[in-house]
């Protein structure tokens, strides 16, 4: 369906259109265009959260349009049609006064999330508004990803300090990936996630600039430091806009820590489950796992499960674990991961290394492979093909085999 959520595009459309068939109008003020809408065949058109007079809304419904009304009284827009930017989330923030963050949209929405029941809202109205918001964010996210050829994510802990060597190493790795045409994504928070977007921010810029920026950031090394966000905005003020776009996927479930200021786009959700599934699924050209705790370990095995069963577009994507000692001794996931992958297509798509350049070379040498959807009841017994077991078999096993 054609989706329209910009006034300029709406005006062009109304100048040439005769019908709303297969068209969605979202979050638009349609009051100046009600006469034009009355001349259109609106059957099967969909209007999501648009502003209309009661008379126009009644007319559209009577003539077959599907009209979802606006939901008022929320800090956020339930009918959100675009991704967030740091400029929007942090509007009004003054680095000289760190507590001005509390007046930003990001902080106000987090307070609303807390006051309305956190992950368990007090009312169906609140639940519905959040679900609509997250659906709109997902729709905008998919539109952005459709424009990207090679999406690589970097996962890692939010507690990674800005003044430790691994932070700079992650930033350099992300910068190199961005310079080679990859679109970088992360969970959108601080620590290793921030380093990811800092690297994309400095793509094509001299290494001494990146080092200088990290030195400035290290004056507030942890996300709990009062000047943490202010330091990021001082770096932005000195070096300007991101050199390469990147995507953060944060959530108000963890809204006690602000998203980072270096991603060009943020797909910020209320539902953490939607965020986690989407974040791991979107990185079809691989994920780099920097050191992290429970959240990062969860993401490793979530990614492994997707590769094990070929659940993301029937693809197996590379997994690159950065820091051998960390992933083999401190958090020894590698032995279990290797055992789990034994005999499966993704066994050849796992690498563990201390060498960022080596991991980049691994990602570039191992693009995603198709394994199909695997076995299905209908395909096996009823002659109705529901999966592609042959592709999985060629790569060493049934991607859809049960656990």
Describe it.
Mean pLDDT is 94; it is low at 388-397. Strands 8-7-6-5-9-11-12 form a seven-stranded parallel β-sheet, sandwiched between helices. The radius of gyration is 23 Å and the shape is globular. The chain has helices at residues 7-16, 34-38, 54-62, 86-89, 105-115, 124-145, 165-179, 192-201, 207-217, 228-239, 272-282, 294-309, 324-330, 333-341, 356-365, 377-381, 389-394; strands spanning 2-4, 23-26, 46-48, 66-68, 151-155, 183-186, 246-248, 265-266, 287-289, 315-316, 319-322, 350-353, 369-370. The relative contact order is 0.09. The protein has two domains: 2-68; 148-368, 3-Layer(aba) Sandwich (Rossmann fold). It is of the alpha/beta class and 403 residues long. It contains 17 helices and 13 strands. Helix 11 crosses helix 12.
Q: What is the general shape?
A: globular
- SS-based class: alpha/beta
Q: In CATH, what is the class of the largest domain?
A: Alpha Beta
CATH architecture of the largest domain: 3-Layer(aba) Sandwich
CATH topology of the largest domain: Rossmann fold
Question: How do the strands of the widest beta sheet line up side by side?
Answer: 8-7-6-5-9-11-12
* N- to C-terminal distance: 37 Å
- Number of beta strands: 13
Order of helices and strands: EHEHEHEHHHEHEHHHEEHEHEEHHEHEHH
Number of helices: 17
Largest sheet: 7 strands, parallel
Number of domains: 2
- Pick out the low-confidence regions: 388-397
Provide the helix percentage.
40-55%
Radius of gyration: 23 Å
- Give average pLDDT, whole number: 94
Q: Strand share of the residues?
A: 5-15%
């Amino acid at each position: 369906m054609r989706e329209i959520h910009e006034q300029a595009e709406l005006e062009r459309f109304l100048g040439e259109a005769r019908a709303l068939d297969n068209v969605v109008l979202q979050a638009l003020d349609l009051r100046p265009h009600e006469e034009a809408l009355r001349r259109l065949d609106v059957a099967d058109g969909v209007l999501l959260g648009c502003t209309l007079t009661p008379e126009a809304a009644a007319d559209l419904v009577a003539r077959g349009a599907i009209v979802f009304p606006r939901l008022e009284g929320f800090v956020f827009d339930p009918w959100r049609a675009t991704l967030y930017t740091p400029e929007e989330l942090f509007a009004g923030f003054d680095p000289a006064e760190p507590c001005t963050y509390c007046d930003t949209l990001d902080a106000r929405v987090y307070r609303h999330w807390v006051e309305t029941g956190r992950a368990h809202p007090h009312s169906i109205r609140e639940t519905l508004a959040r679900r609509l918001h997250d659906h709109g964010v997902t729709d905008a996210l998919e539109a952005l990803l459709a424009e990207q050829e090679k999406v690589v994510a970097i996962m890692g802990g939010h507690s990674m300090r800005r003044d430790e060597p691994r932070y700079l190493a992650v930033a350099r790795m992300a910068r190199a990936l961005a310079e080679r045409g990859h679109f970088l994504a992360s969970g959108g928070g601080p620590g290793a996630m921030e380093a990811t977007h800092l690297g994309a921010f400095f793509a094509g810029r001299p290494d001494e600039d990146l080092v200088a920026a990290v030195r400035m950031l290290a004056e507030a090394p942890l996300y709990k430091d009062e000047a943490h966000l202010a330091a990021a905005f001082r770096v932005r003020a000195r070096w300007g806009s991101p050199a390469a776009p990147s995507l953060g996927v944060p959530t108000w479930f963890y809204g006690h820590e602000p998203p980072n200021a270096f991603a060009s786009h943020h797909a910020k959700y209320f539902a953490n489950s939607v965020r986690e599934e989407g974040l791991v699924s979107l990185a079809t050209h691989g994920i780099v796992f920097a050191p992290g705790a429970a959240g990062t370990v969860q993401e490793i095995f979530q990614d492994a499960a997707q590769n094990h069963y070929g659940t993301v577009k029937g693809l197996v994507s590379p997994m690159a674990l950065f820091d051998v000692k960390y992933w083999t001794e401190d958090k020894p996931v590698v032995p279990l991961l290797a055992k789990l992958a034994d005999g499966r297509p993704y066994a050849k798509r796992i690498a563990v290394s201390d060498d960022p350049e080596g991991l980049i070379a691994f990602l570039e040498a191992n693009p995603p492979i198709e394994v199909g959807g695997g076995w299905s009841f209908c395909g096996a017994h009823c002659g109705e093909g529901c999966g592609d077991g042959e592709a999985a078999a060629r790569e060493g096993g049934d991607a859809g085999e049960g656990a």
